[in-house]
Amino acid sequence: MGSLPLDALQPLDPDTFAADSSAVVDFLAGYYRDVDKYPVRAADLEPGRLRRLLPEAAPEFGEPAERILADVRRDVLPGLTHWQSPSFFAYFPMNASAAGFAGEMLSVGLNVVPFMWVASPAAVELEAVVVDWMARLVGLPDRFLFSGSGGCGGGGGGGVLQGSTCEAVVCTLAAARDRALGRIGHEGIVKLVVYASDQTHATFQKGARLVGITPANFRVVPTAAASGYALTGAAVRAAVEGDVARGLVPLYLCATVGTTGIGAVDPVRELGEVARRHGMWLHVDAAYAGSAAICPEYQGYLDGAELADSVSMNPHKWFLTNMDCCCLWVASPAALTAALSTDPEYLKNAGGGKPQAAAGAGAIDYKDWQISLSRRFRAMKLWFVLRRYGAAGMRAHIRRHVAMAEWFERAVSADERFEVVAKRRFSLVCFRLRGGGGGGDAMNRELLAAVNASGRAFMTHFVVEGKFVIRLAVDGAMTEMRHVGDAWELVQRTAEQLLQRR
Ligand SMILES: *Cc1c(COP(=O)(O)O)cnc(C)c1O
Protein backbone atom coordinates (compact mmCIF):
# COMPACT_ATOMS: atom_id res chain seq x y z
CA MET A 1 0.00 0.00 0.00
CA GLY A 2 1.39 3.35 -1.06
CA SER A 3 0.73 6.88 0.10
CA LEU A 4 -2.66 7.84 1.43
CA PRO A 5 -4.39 10.60 -0.57
CA LEU A 6 -5.68 13.35 1.69
CA ASP A 7 -9.29 13.08 0.58
CA ALA A 8 -9.31 9.41 1.55
CA LEU A 9 -8.18 10.09 5.12
CA GLN A 10 -10.68 8.51 7.50
CA PRO A 11 -8.91 8.52 10.85
CA LEU A 12 -11.51 6.41 12.64
CA ASP A 13 -12.68 4.14 9.87
CA PRO A 14 -13.65 1.02 11.86
CA ASP A 15 -12.05 -1.44 9.41
CA THR A 16 -8.71 0.37 9.38
CA PHE A 17 -9.00 0.73 13.14
CA ALA A 18 -9.45 -3.01 13.56
CA ALA A 19 -6.61 -3.87 11.16
CA ASP A 20 -4.08 -1.40 12.59
CA SER A 21 -4.98 -2.24 16.20
CA SER A 22 -4.67 -5.99 15.64
CA ALA A 23 -1.29 -5.43 14.03
CA VAL A 24 -0.20 -3.56 17.17
CA VAL A 25 -1.63 -6.24 19.48
CA ASP A 26 0.20 -8.94 17.51
CA PHE A 27 3.37 -6.89 17.63
CA LEU A 28 3.09 -6.52 21.41
CA ALA A 29 2.27 -10.20 21.99
CA GLY A 30 5.45 -11.02 20.07
CA TYR A 31 7.34 -8.47 22.12
CA TYR A 32 6.18 -9.96 25.40
CA ARG A 33 7.11 -13.43 24.13
CA ASP A 34 10.66 -12.26 23.35
CA VAL A 35 11.26 -9.50 25.85
CA ASP A 36 13.54 -11.66 28.00
CA LYS A 37 15.91 -11.99 25.04
CA TYR A 38 16.64 -8.25 24.82
CA PRO A 39 19.42 -6.65 26.89
CA VAL A 40 17.37 -5.23 29.78
CA ARG A 41 18.99 -1.82 29.82
CA ALA A 42 19.25 -0.08 26.44
CA ALA A 43 22.27 -1.71 24.83
CA ASP A 44 23.20 1.33 22.82
CA LEU A 45 23.66 4.17 25.27
CA GLU A 46 25.15 6.52 22.71
CA PRO A 47 23.11 9.76 22.70
CA GLY A 48 21.73 10.87 19.33
CA ARG A 49 21.50 7.38 17.82
CA LEU A 50 17.84 7.63 16.90
CA ARG A 51 18.12 11.11 15.40
CA ARG A 52 20.73 9.80 13.01
CA LEU A 53 18.46 6.92 11.99
CA LEU A 54 15.32 8.97 11.38
CA PRO A 55 14.57 11.51 8.61
CA GLU A 56 14.91 15.23 9.29
CA ALA A 57 11.21 15.91 8.72
CA ALA A 58 7.81 14.25 9.06
CA PRO A 59 6.57 12.38 5.96
CA GLU A 60 4.40 14.37 3.57
CA PHE A 61 2.09 11.41 2.96
CA GLY A 62 0.80 8.72 5.30
CA GLU A 63 2.32 5.26 5.45
CA PRO A 64 0.86 1.86 6.31
CA ALA A 65 0.95 0.71 9.93
CA GLU A 66 3.09 -2.31 9.03
CA ARG A 67 5.89 -0.07 7.79
CA ILE A 68 5.80 2.01 10.93
CA LEU A 69 5.84 -1.11 13.13
CA ALA A 70 8.82 -2.45 11.18
CA ASP A 71 10.70 0.75 12.05
CA VAL A 72 9.66 0.45 15.68
CA ARG A 73 11.21 -3.01 15.69
CA ARG A 74 14.36 -2.00 13.82
CA ASP A 75 15.08 1.50 15.14
CA VAL A 76 13.24 2.02 18.42
CA LEU A 77 13.34 -1.31 20.29
CA PRO A 78 17.16 -1.54 20.36
CA GLY A 79 17.29 1.86 22.06
CA LEU A 80 14.75 1.03 24.77
CA THR A 81 15.36 -0.05 28.30
CA HIS A 82 12.86 -2.86 28.64
CA TRP A 83 10.75 -2.08 31.67
CA GLN A 84 8.59 -5.16 31.11
CA SER A 85 11.59 -7.49 31.00
CA PRO A 86 11.31 -10.13 33.73
CA SER A 87 14.89 -9.22 34.70
CA PHE A 88 14.11 -5.53 35.24
CA PHE A 89 14.73 -4.92 38.96
CA ALA A 90 15.60 -1.21 38.77
CA TYR A 91 13.81 1.78 40.39
CA PHE A 92 10.37 0.31 40.98
CA PRO A 93 9.19 -1.68 37.97
CA MET A 94 6.06 -0.29 36.32
CA ASN A 95 3.41 -2.94 36.01
CA ALA A 96 1.65 -3.91 32.83
CA SER A 97 -0.85 -6.74 32.40
CA ALA A 98 -3.35 -8.12 29.92
CA ALA A 99 -6.15 -6.59 31.99
CA GLY A 100 -4.36 -3.27 32.41
CA PHE A 101 -3.82 -3.14 28.67
CA ALA A 102 -7.40 -4.13 27.86
CA GLY A 103 -8.74 -1.46 30.22
CA GLU A 104 -6.36 1.11 28.81
CA MET A 105 -7.42 0.17 25.29
CA LEU A 106 -11.06 0.71 26.21
CA SER A 107 -10.27 4.00 27.85
CA VAL A 108 -8.17 5.24 24.94
CA GLY A 109 -10.68 3.96 22.39
CA LEU A 110 -13.71 5.52 24.05
CA ASN A 111 -11.61 8.64 24.64
CA VAL A 112 -14.16 10.40 26.83
CA VAL A 113 -13.08 13.23 29.11
CA PRO A 114 -14.64 12.98 32.58
CA PHE A 115 -13.70 16.39 33.95
CA MET A 116 -17.24 17.07 35.13
CA TRP A 117 -20.04 14.69 35.92
CA VAL A 118 -22.13 15.86 32.99
CA ALA A 119 -19.16 15.59 30.62
CA SER A 120 -19.37 11.80 30.94
CA PRO A 121 -21.48 10.69 33.91
CA ALA A 122 -20.68 6.97 33.93
CA ALA A 123 -16.94 7.61 33.62
CA VAL A 124 -17.05 9.91 36.66
CA GLU A 125 -19.21 7.49 38.62
CA LEU A 126 -16.99 4.53 37.74
CA GLU A 127 -14.00 6.47 39.06
CA ALA A 128 -15.81 7.18 42.34
CA VAL A 129 -16.73 3.49 42.67
CA VAL A 130 -13.25 2.25 41.85
CA VAL A 131 -11.42 4.57 44.27
CA ASP A 132 -13.83 3.41 46.99
CA TRP A 133 -13.11 -0.22 46.08
CA MET A 134 -9.39 0.44 46.32
CA ALA A 135 -9.75 2.29 49.63
CA ARG A 136 -11.63 -0.70 51.07
CA LEU A 137 -9.08 -3.16 49.70
CA VAL A 138 -6.13 -1.39 51.34
CA GLY A 139 -8.13 -0.96 54.56
CA LEU A 140 -8.43 2.83 54.64
CA PRO A 141 -10.83 4.27 57.19
CA ASP A 142 -14.30 5.38 56.06
CA ARG A 143 -13.34 9.03 56.12
CA PHE A 144 -11.55 8.59 52.78
CA LEU A 145 -14.56 6.99 51.07
CA PHE A 146 -17.45 8.52 49.18
CA SER A 147 -19.67 5.80 50.58
CA GLY A 148 -18.87 5.10 54.21
CA SER A 149 -20.39 2.41 56.35
CA GLY A 150 -23.26 4.78 57.06
CA GLY A 151 -24.49 4.13 53.54
CA CYS A 152 -25.17 6.74 50.88
CA GLY A 153 -22.74 9.62 51.13
CA GLY A 154 -21.58 8.39 54.52
CA GLY A 155 -17.81 8.59 54.16
CA GLY A 156 -17.38 12.32 53.78
CA GLY A 157 -14.13 11.96 51.89
CA GLY A 158 -13.34 10.55 48.52
CA GLY A 159 -10.74 9.74 45.92
CA VAL A 160 -9.53 10.65 42.46
CA LEU A 161 -7.29 9.00 39.89
CA GLN A 162 -4.38 11.16 38.84
CA GLY A 163 -1.35 10.50 36.68
CA SER A 164 1.35 10.51 39.33
CA THR A 165 2.17 10.94 42.98
CA CYS A 166 3.93 14.19 42.04
CA GLU A 167 0.64 15.70 40.88
CA ALA A 168 -1.26 14.31 43.86
CA VAL A 169 1.24 15.80 46.30
CA VAL A 170 1.10 19.23 44.64
CA CYS A 171 -2.70 19.22 44.89
CA THR A 172 -2.70 18.32 48.57
CA LEU A 173 0.01 20.88 49.32
CA ALA A 174 -2.10 23.54 47.61
CA ALA A 175 -5.13 22.48 49.65
CA ALA A 176 -3.17 22.58 52.90
CA ARG A 177 -1.62 25.94 51.98
CA ASP A 178 -4.95 27.59 51.23
CA ARG A 179 -6.52 26.18 54.38
CA ALA A 180 -3.69 27.67 56.44
CA LEU A 181 -3.66 30.98 54.59
CA GLY A 182 -7.41 31.29 55.18
CA ARG A 183 -6.51 31.28 58.86
CA ILE A 184 -3.38 33.47 58.95
CA GLY A 185 -3.81 35.68 55.87
CA HIS A 186 -2.04 35.54 52.54
CA GLU A 187 1.07 37.43 53.68
CA GLY A 188 1.67 34.50 56.05
CA ILE A 189 2.85 32.30 53.19
CA VAL A 190 6.49 33.02 54.11
CA LYS A 191 5.87 31.46 57.53
CA LEU A 192 4.60 28.10 56.31
CA VAL A 193 6.86 25.14 57.02
CA VAL A 194 6.73 21.62 55.55
CA TYR A 195 8.30 18.48 57.03
CA ALA A 196 9.60 15.26 55.57
CA SER A 197 12.46 12.87 56.19
CA ASP A 198 15.78 12.42 54.44
CA GLN A 199 14.16 9.32 52.87
CA THR A 200 11.09 11.12 51.50
CA HIS A 201 10.71 11.14 47.72
CA ALA A 202 12.17 14.22 46.02
CA THR A 203 8.80 14.94 44.50
CA PHE A 204 7.71 16.38 47.81
CA GLN A 205 10.40 19.07 47.77
CA LYS A 206 9.45 19.92 44.20
CA GLY A 207 5.78 20.15 45.14
CA ALA A 208 6.55 22.43 48.07
CA ARG A 209 8.51 24.75 45.76
CA LEU A 210 5.66 24.76 43.25
CA VAL A 211 3.09 25.90 45.81
CA GLY A 212 5.31 28.73 47.01
CA ILE A 213 6.83 27.38 50.22
CA THR A 214 10.00 29.30 51.05
CA PRO A 215 12.90 26.89 50.42
CA ALA A 216 14.33 27.79 53.83
CA ASN A 217 11.11 26.41 55.37
CA PHE A 218 11.55 22.92 54.03
CA ARG A 219 12.60 20.67 56.92
CA VAL A 220 14.43 17.46 56.12
CA VAL A 221 14.29 15.49 59.37
CA PRO A 222 17.19 13.02 59.55
CA THR A 223 16.52 9.32 60.06
CA ALA A 224 18.84 6.63 61.39
CA ALA A 225 19.44 2.90 61.23
CA ALA A 226 18.09 2.49 64.79
CA SER A 227 14.57 3.46 63.67
CA GLY A 228 14.86 1.56 60.37
CA TYR A 229 15.32 4.91 58.59
CA ALA A 230 11.81 5.93 59.64
CA LEU A 231 10.74 9.32 60.93
CA THR A 232 10.06 9.36 64.65
CA GLY A 233 7.35 11.38 66.33
CA ALA A 234 9.97 12.80 68.70
CA ALA A 235 12.21 14.09 65.91
CA VAL A 236 9.30 15.71 64.08
CA ARG A 237 7.93 17.20 67.29
CA ALA A 238 11.32 18.74 68.11
CA ALA A 239 11.57 20.30 64.65
CA VAL A 240 7.99 21.60 64.79
CA GLU A 241 8.31 23.04 68.28
CA GLY A 242 11.51 24.85 67.27
CA ASP A 243 9.71 26.41 64.32
CA VAL A 244 6.66 27.39 66.37
CA ALA A 245 8.94 29.06 68.92
CA ARG A 246 10.38 31.16 66.09
CA GLY A 247 6.93 32.27 65.01
CA LEU A 248 6.68 29.96 62.00
CA VAL A 249 3.56 27.97 61.06
CA PRO A 250 3.78 24.17 60.61
CA LEU A 251 1.84 23.33 57.46
CA TYR A 252 2.33 19.82 56.15
CA LEU A 253 3.98 16.58 57.12
CA CYS A 254 4.69 13.84 54.59
CA ALA A 255 4.84 10.28 55.93
CA THR A 256 5.99 7.52 53.62
CA VAL A 257 4.92 3.89 53.74
CA GLY A 258 7.65 2.16 51.74
CA THR A 259 10.31 4.72 50.84
CA THR A 260 11.77 4.61 47.36
CA GLY A 261 15.37 4.14 48.41
CA ILE A 262 15.10 1.28 50.89
CA GLY A 263 11.41 0.65 51.63
CA ALA A 264 11.36 2.25 55.08
CA VAL A 265 8.01 2.82 56.79
CA ASP A 266 7.19 5.95 58.78
CA PRO A 267 4.90 5.39 61.81
CA VAL A 268 1.64 6.89 60.58
CA ARG A 269 -0.22 7.00 63.90
CA GLU A 270 2.66 8.55 65.84
CA LEU A 271 3.17 11.18 63.14
CA GLY A 272 -0.58 11.74 62.88
CA GLU A 273 -0.70 12.65 66.55
CA VAL A 274 2.06 15.24 66.11
CA ALA A 275 0.33 16.62 63.01
CA ARG A 276 -3.02 16.90 64.81
CA ARG A 277 -1.51 18.70 67.77
CA HIS A 278 -0.02 21.36 65.50
CA GLY A 279 -2.82 21.63 62.95
CA MET A 280 -0.66 20.24 60.15
CA TRP A 281 -1.90 18.43 57.06
CA LEU A 282 -0.65 14.83 57.13
CA HIS A 283 -0.13 13.11 53.81
CA VAL A 284 0.68 9.40 53.56
CA ASP A 285 2.71 8.55 50.45
CA ALA A 286 2.36 4.82 49.79
CA ALA A 287 3.22 5.03 46.08
CA TYR A 288 4.84 1.61 45.89
CA ALA A 289 3.97 -0.27 49.08
CA GLY A 290 0.31 0.80 49.14
CA SER A 291 -0.41 -2.11 46.80
CA ALA A 292 0.82 -4.56 49.45
CA ALA A 293 -1.80 -3.24 51.85
CA ILE A 294 -4.46 -5.29 50.06
CA CYS A 295 -2.96 -8.19 52.06
CA PRO A 296 -4.01 -8.16 55.73
CA GLU A 297 -0.42 -8.84 56.82
CA TYR A 298 0.61 -5.39 55.50
CA GLN A 299 -2.39 -3.32 56.56
CA GLY A 300 -0.79 -2.56 59.91
CA TYR A 301 1.54 -0.15 58.13
CA LEU A 302 -1.43 2.11 57.44
CA ASP A 303 -2.59 2.00 61.06
CA GLY A 304 -3.37 5.56 62.11
CA ALA A 305 -4.48 6.61 58.64
CA GLU A 306 -7.63 8.06 60.22
CA LEU A 307 -5.33 10.84 61.47
CA ALA A 308 -4.21 11.67 57.92
CA ASP A 309 -5.72 14.26 55.61
CA SER A 310 -4.71 12.47 52.42
CA VAL A 311 -3.26 9.18 51.23
CA SER A 312 -1.87 8.24 47.82
CA MET A 313 -0.60 5.14 46.04
CA ASN A 314 0.35 4.25 42.47
CA PRO A 315 -1.42 1.20 40.99
CA HIS A 316 0.92 1.61 38.01
CA LYS A 317 3.84 0.52 40.17
CA TRP A 318 2.80 -2.78 41.71
CA PHE A 319 -0.90 -3.26 40.95
CA LEU A 320 -0.78 -4.58 37.38
CA THR A 321 -2.20 -1.31 36.05
CA ASN A 322 -0.38 0.12 33.04
CA MET A 323 0.94 3.68 33.28
CA ASP A 324 -0.44 5.95 34.46
CA CYS A 325 -2.59 5.65 37.56
CA CYS A 326 -2.28 7.21 41.00
CA CYS A 327 -5.05 6.95 43.62
CA LEU A 328 -5.36 10.02 45.81
CA TRP A 329 -7.82 9.94 48.70
CA VAL A 330 -8.69 12.97 50.79
CA ALA A 331 -10.70 13.25 53.99
CA SER A 332 -11.98 16.68 53.01
CA PRO A 333 -12.76 17.05 49.30
CA ALA A 334 -13.87 20.61 50.11
CA ALA A 335 -10.30 21.52 51.13
CA LEU A 336 -9.03 20.20 47.82
CA THR A 337 -11.66 21.84 45.64
CA ALA A 338 -11.32 25.15 47.49
CA ALA A 339 -7.74 25.29 46.25
CA LEU A 340 -8.27 23.85 42.77
CA SER A 341 -11.73 24.72 41.51
CA THR A 342 -12.40 26.95 38.54
CA ASP A 343 -15.74 27.96 37.16
CA PRO A 344 -15.32 29.46 33.70
CA GLU A 345 -18.36 30.51 31.70
CA TYR A 346 -17.70 28.01 28.90
CA LEU A 347 -18.23 25.08 31.28
CA LYS A 348 -21.34 26.42 32.99
CA ASN A 349 -23.85 25.33 30.39
CA ALA A 350 -22.60 21.78 30.67
CA GLY A 351 -23.02 21.77 34.44
CA GLY A 352 -26.67 22.78 34.27
CA GLY A 353 -27.94 19.24 34.02
CA LYS A 354 -26.47 17.97 37.27
CA PRO A 355 -29.00 16.72 39.79
CA GLN A 356 -28.87 18.71 43.02
CA ALA A 357 -28.35 15.95 45.55
CA ALA A 358 -26.11 13.95 43.29
CA ALA A 359 -22.69 14.62 44.86
CA GLY A 360 -23.00 11.70 47.25
CA ALA A 361 -24.02 9.48 44.36
CA GLY A 362 -20.78 10.21 42.56
CA ALA A 363 -21.70 13.34 40.55
CA ILE A 364 -18.27 14.83 41.01
CA ASP A 365 -16.54 17.56 39.05
CA TYR A 366 -13.10 15.97 39.00
CA LYS A 367 -11.57 19.00 37.28
CA ASP A 368 -11.62 20.58 40.75
CA TRP A 369 -9.61 17.70 42.25
CA GLN A 370 -6.52 18.05 40.06
CA ILE A 371 -4.26 20.46 38.17
CA SER A 372 -5.44 20.05 34.60
CA LEU A 373 -8.93 20.36 33.19
CA SER A 374 -8.95 17.57 30.61
CA ARG A 375 -8.26 14.15 32.00
CA ARG A 376 -8.02 10.50 31.05
CA PHE A 377 -10.62 7.82 31.78
CA ARG A 378 -8.26 5.95 34.11
CA ALA A 379 -11.04 4.29 36.09
CA MET A 380 -11.77 1.88 33.24
CA LYS A 381 -8.25 0.50 33.49
CA LEU A 382 -8.19 0.00 37.24
CA TRP A 383 -11.73 -1.41 37.18
CA PHE A 384 -10.73 -3.90 34.47
CA VAL A 385 -7.74 -5.04 36.53
CA LEU A 386 -9.85 -5.48 39.68
CA ARG A 387 -12.59 -7.34 37.81
CA ARG A 388 -10.23 -9.56 35.82
CA TYR A 389 -7.98 -10.70 38.68
CA GLY A 390 -10.15 -10.12 41.73
CA ALA A 391 -8.86 -9.23 45.18
CA ALA A 392 -7.64 -12.80 45.72
CA GLY A 393 -5.67 -12.78 42.47
CA MET A 394 -4.11 -9.43 43.35
CA ARG A 395 -3.10 -10.66 46.81
CA ALA A 396 -1.48 -13.70 45.23
CA HIS A 397 0.37 -11.37 42.84
CA ILE A 398 1.78 -9.31 45.73
CA ARG A 399 2.72 -12.36 47.82
CA ARG A 400 4.44 -14.02 44.87
CA HIS A 401 6.76 -11.03 44.53
CA VAL A 402 7.40 -10.80 48.24
CA ALA A 403 8.29 -14.51 48.33
CA MET A 404 10.82 -14.03 45.52
CA ALA A 405 12.37 -11.05 47.30
CA GLU A 406 12.52 -13.12 50.50
CA TRP A 407 14.40 -15.83 48.64
CA PHE A 408 16.91 -13.31 47.30
CA GLU A 409 17.34 -11.80 50.76
CA ARG A 410 18.05 -15.25 52.23
CA ALA A 411 20.54 -16.02 49.46
CA VAL A 412 22.41 -12.75 50.10
CA SER A 413 22.41 -13.33 53.87
CA ALA A 414 23.81 -16.84 53.41
CA ASP A 415 26.83 -15.55 51.46
CA GLU A 416 29.29 -14.00 53.88
CA ARG A 417 30.82 -11.79 51.18
CA PHE A 418 27.55 -9.84 51.08
CA GLU A 419 25.27 -8.04 53.50
CA VAL A 420 21.61 -7.01 53.42
CA VAL A 421 21.68 -3.33 54.26
CA ALA A 422 18.19 -2.37 55.40
CA LYS A 423 15.37 -4.54 56.68
CA ARG A 424 13.28 -5.89 53.81
CA ARG A 425 9.57 -5.31 54.31
CA PHE A 426 8.06 -5.68 50.86
CA SER A 427 9.66 -6.81 47.61
CA LEU A 428 12.71 -4.53 47.67
CA VAL A 429 16.08 -5.94 48.76
CA CYS A 430 19.01 -3.59 49.46
CA PHE A 431 22.38 -5.29 49.60
CA ARG A 432 26.09 -4.76 49.04
CA LEU A 433 29.43 -6.48 49.07
CA ARG A 434 30.92 -6.16 52.52
CA GLY A 435 33.98 -4.00 53.00
CA GLY A 436 34.10 -0.65 54.71
CA GLY A 437 35.20 2.77 53.59
CA GLY A 438 35.33 4.38 50.17
CA GLY A 439 36.99 1.29 48.69
CA GLY A 440 33.88 -0.73 49.52
CA ASP A 441 31.72 1.80 47.74
CA ALA A 442 33.92 1.77 44.64
CA MET A 443 33.72 -2.03 44.54
CA ASN A 444 29.92 -2.00 44.81
CA ARG A 445 29.62 0.66 42.13
CA GLU A 446 31.78 -1.48 39.89
CA LEU A 447 29.69 -4.55 40.68
CA LEU A 448 26.43 -2.80 39.77
CA ALA A 449 27.91 -1.32 36.58
CA ALA A 450 29.15 -4.74 35.46
CA VAL A 451 25.83 -6.45 36.27
CA ASN A 452 23.91 -3.85 34.25
CA ALA A 453 26.41 -3.85 31.37
CA SER A 454 25.82 -7.59 30.96
CA GLY A 455 22.28 -6.82 29.79
CA ARG A 456 21.04 -9.85 31.75
CA ALA A 457 19.50 -7.83 34.58
CA PHE A 458 19.00 -4.19 35.48
CA MET A 459 19.23 -2.88 39.05
CA THR A 460 19.76 0.60 40.49
CA HIS A 461 21.41 1.93 43.62
CA PHE A 462 20.80 4.10 46.64
CA VAL A 463 23.04 5.70 49.24
CA VAL A 464 22.23 5.12 52.92
CA GLU A 465 24.30 6.92 55.53
CA GLY A 466 26.97 7.48 52.91
CA LYS A 467 27.01 3.80 51.90
CA PHE A 468 26.41 2.74 48.31
CA VAL A 469 23.80 -0.02 48.20
CA ILE A 470 22.37 -2.03 45.32
CA ARG A 471 18.57 -2.21 45.08
CA LEU A 472 16.75 -5.24 43.70
CA ALA A 473 13.06 -4.40 43.32
CA VAL A 474 11.07 -7.53 42.49
CA ASP A 475 7.74 -6.41 41.14
CA GLY A 476 7.77 -6.92 37.39
CA ALA A 477 4.64 -8.59 36.05
CA MET A 478 6.65 -11.21 34.11
CA THR A 479 9.28 -11.87 36.75
CA GLU A 480 9.47 -15.48 37.89
CA MET A 481 11.62 -17.26 40.43
CA ARG A 482 14.11 -18.34 37.78
CA HIS A 483 14.78 -14.70 36.84
CA VAL A 484 15.50 -13.81 40.45
CA GLY A 485 17.72 -16.90 40.72
CA ASP A 486 19.58 -15.89 37.56
CA ALA A 487 20.03 -12.36 38.90
CA TRP A 488 21.60 -13.70 42.09
CA GLU A 489 23.90 -15.99 40.11
CA LEU A 490 24.90 -13.05 37.92
CA VAL A 491 25.65 -10.91 40.98
CA GLN A 492 27.73 -13.68 42.55
CA ARG A 493 29.68 -14.46 39.39
CA THR A 494 30.38 -10.79 38.70
CA ALA A 495 31.48 -10.25 42.29
CA GLU A 496 33.85 -13.22 42.09
CA GLN A 497 35.54 -11.76 39.01
CA LEU A 498 35.84 -8.38 40.71
CA LEU A 499 37.26 -9.81 43.92
CA GLN A 500 39.79 -11.92 42.02
CA ARG A 501 41.09 -8.88 40.17
CA ARG A 502 41.75 -7.02 43.42
C1 LIG B 1 7.68 6.37 42.83
C2 LIG B 1 7.44 7.17 44.04
C3 LIG B 1 6.98 8.49 43.97
C4 LIG B 1 6.82 9.23 42.67
O1 LIG B 1 5.75 8.75 41.97
P1 LIG B 1 5.29 9.42 40.60
O2 LIG B 1 3.97 8.79 40.35
O3 LIG B 1 6.32 9.06 39.59
O4 LIG B 1 5.19 10.87 40.79
C5 LIG B 1 6.70 9.14 45.15
N1 LIG B 1 6.87 8.54 46.33
C6 LIG B 1 7.32 7.28 46.45
C7 LIG B 1 7.48 6.66 47.80
C8 LIG B 1 7.63 6.55 45.30
O5 LIG B 1 8.10 5.30 45.41
Automatic annotation (TrEMBL):
Gene3D superfamilies xref list: Aspartate Aminotransferase, domain 1, dopa decarboxylase, N-terminal domain, Type I PLP-dependent aspartate aminotransferase-like (Major domain)
Keywords: Decarboxylase, Lyase, Pyridoxal phosphate
Domain of life assignment: Eukaryota
One cellular component (GO) term of this entry: cytoplasm
Keyword Lyase: yes
Modified residues (N6-(pyridoxal phosphate)lysine): K317
Required cofactor names: pyridoxal 5'-phosphate
GO molecular function: carboxy-lyase activity; pyridoxal phosphate binding
KW Magnesium (keyword) present: no
InterPro entries xref list: Aromatic_deC (IPR010977), PyrdxlP-dep_de-COase (IPR002129), PyrdxlP-dep_Trfase (IPR015424), PyrdxlP-dep_Trfase_major (IPR015421), PyrdxlP-dep_Trfase_small (IPR015422)
GO biological process: amino acid metabolic process; carboxylic acid metabolic process
Matching Pfam families: Pyridoxal_deC
Protein family membership: Belongs to the group II decarboxylase family.
UniProt-listed PANTHER family: GROUP II PYRIDOXAL-5-PHOSPHATE DECARBOXYLASE (PTHR11999), OS10G0400500 PROTEIN (PTHR11999:SF148)
Name of the protein: Tyrosine decarboxylase
Organism: Oryza nivara (Indian wild rice)
